[in-house]
TrEMBL record:
InterPro entries: IPNS-like_sf
Name of the protein: Uncharacterized protein
The species this protein was found in: Lithocarpus litseifolius
Gene3D superfamilies in the record: B-lactam Antibiotic, Isopenicillin N Synthase, Chain
SUPFAM superfamilies named in the record: Clavaminate synthase-like
Length: 78
């Protein structure tokens, strides 16, 4: 609950897109949004529990960014 927020401008937030009062169709979606670039600006705002979360997600973000840059390079060459 520490990260829960209805404020869409927060860079790190846990929220849901389901509103029982206004929606007639049950399409529940909970999400944790984490901004991750530049990594050093956001990693300290991420949840610290479980203990390995920040390190694991930082590694994932770094790997995905590297992959995206490789794709962009390949697309540019073609």
């Amino acid at each position: 609950m520490k990260s829960y927020s209805n404020d869409p401008t927060k860079t790190t937030r846990l929220s849901t897109s389901f509103n029982v009062k206004t929606e007639k169709v049950s399409n529940w979606r909970d999400f944790l949004r984490l901004h991750c670039y530049p990594l050093e600006d956001y990693v300290n705002k991420w949840p610290s529990n479980p203990p390995s979360f920040r390190e694991d997600v930082a590694g994932y973000c770094t790997s995905v960014r590297g992959l995206v840059l490789r794709f962009v390079e390949a697309i540019s060459e073609s």
